[in-house]
Input
Amino acid sequence: TAATQPSTDWHLKENSREHHTSKFSGDELVVRRGQAFTVTFKGTEEPEQNFIFVAETGPKPSKATKTLATFGLSSTASKESWSAVLQSSSSNSVSISISSPHNAVIGRYKLSVQSTSDGRSSTTSLGTFVLLFNPWSSGDNVFMPSTAECEEYVLEEFGIIFAGTKSHISSFGWNFGQFQGDILNICLSIMDRSLYYRQDPVTDVSHRNDPKYVGRVLSSMVNANDDQGVVLGNWSGNYEGGKNPTSWTGSGEILQSWKKSGFKPVRYGQCWVFAAVLTTVLRCLGIPTRTITNFSSAHDADGNLRVDEFYDASGNHLERGADSVWNFHVWNESWFTRNDLGPSYSGWQILDATPQEESGGIYQCGPAPRHAIKEGEVDLEYDCPFVFAEVNADCMYWNYDSATGKKTLIFSKSTEIGESISTKAVGRDDRVDVTKDYKYEEGSTKERDIFKKARKKLGLEDKFDPTAPTPKEIEQKPDISGKFKVAGSLEVGKDLNLLLVLVNLQSDAKAVHVNMTAWSTLYTRKPVHEIWKDSLSVTLSPKEEKRFPIKIQYNEYQQRLTTDKTIQVTAICHVEGGIQVLVQRNVTLDNPAIDVQVLGEAKVNKEVDVEVVFTNPIDTDVMDCVLQVEGSDLLTGILELRIPPLKANEKSSTKFKIIPSEAGPKHLLVNFTCDKFADIKTFKALNVID
Output
């Protein structure tokens, strides 16, 4: 006979404090593997030596797949297997300490107890609990020795994501919200909807003890490709039928929409959205995880460690070939051991949920050990060649003549890709540069040796590549050099002022004809609208430097700017009797500022006023103003406020109330959008007191 015990006491408060799970909000016990927890249930002292406990998970629990454990009482807890130790008993209840092994399968378990009395056996269900990875426990594959790092990479619900360009890094806050509401249940259901589970549920669940496996499966499930996963990517510049990727401020809304819609992919995401959602899911399950931004990130589609970019004679960036260089790309690092590769490859592992290239037939990427990327060990699992190229590929710029189909190399650069690799600091709202953990110093012999080693391992050294430039093409030297300098501020609503600086490198005069274009682009450098074009002819005296001011007016770009606020300015210089010179700059404009003040002291369960102030910086009206606010433990869900239109240079002040639900350092995220400015984001750190 089986009956459920409504009277099971799971000691929620004490257990969750011990297991670092007290931020979860439900009534169900959540514990971490390899660590004891206490449970009290009705029973008598007499037959306690006859208790047999059963812990089971998954669709077909079995001992062979380590998804079923039966264990009696023992005098001490075991490290290797499930065990139970009697703590105390009275005439009608028994308290037991239950321990799971360090390598237990994670997920939702059913716990029951069988007792035998007078030869009659009865089974009582004690209920369910959820078991997670345990980075605080030295026997766990995700063990992280620093508690400050555990707190940041598992328990912190706020993050900062870096974006922009390498010469102008910007950042915005994100609410991971891994402990809010129903997120844990949603994370568990993500795993049960993967292709891996659908094909073979029993094997899939039995592998959920392994962070490598869980990370790889989730990198495939966070994108919608192949498996109706969480987020649908869209890099077209047209986001009708969904939300613009730049408008999200947290993962909670995305994960909840996915569940509410009956698990239909949420529209739309771009790289930071995939990375942020994967951070939420992995932190929720107990795998230490962070987001990483790589600037000038290569997408090497054909695996030759080279990206080719094509321009026409007017300086327009052509979309030819599948290779591309993104102004930035965001992926994840998760922390765990690599028993399959050996100790030097343990630690940070790269996972990428953005659907870029297939791996094993589906869109998933990683885990690639960061150490293997640095050492050029591109033959190691998983997906090291793709990640290596993202931070190391050589860049080739070609001139393409569509009439003849002829392409001419303009120049090649081996120091362009993979710069200012960034992540949020532990315990502080600052940027930390981790480039040196990905590669040796750019241009050093060691770095070039590693690049050659990777090429060799990929079989590129010995293979003739008809698309590669000839040594003669690579060695040709230009007669002039050029660069764009920013003159003045980079702000939406203001004119964009640049200087084109041209230098004659030779000791004889050079006649130069320059064709210039400016296009609004996505952050992936995909051209969307032409904004401006111009040309000029000049003769440069020997060794002369000349500067040409360029002004692109606000009214020229305003209608055409994408929500990435990015403009690519290109000058192709045709030098008489010499090779062409390409001058290029990707500029990301900043939104105007928005100010947030908390008016008074933030206390648990007490209302406090917040004021948001925005001044319209342009000399026309702004309409359709909407303010979105969210923050874990500060307000439930997302607060959306409509704000009346603002006249030229008018200031608006909006007040609202929040009621903090938990003490400690918290972050309020604010996003302001109107018809002239998309997604002005800021965050406010506040300390909530009891």
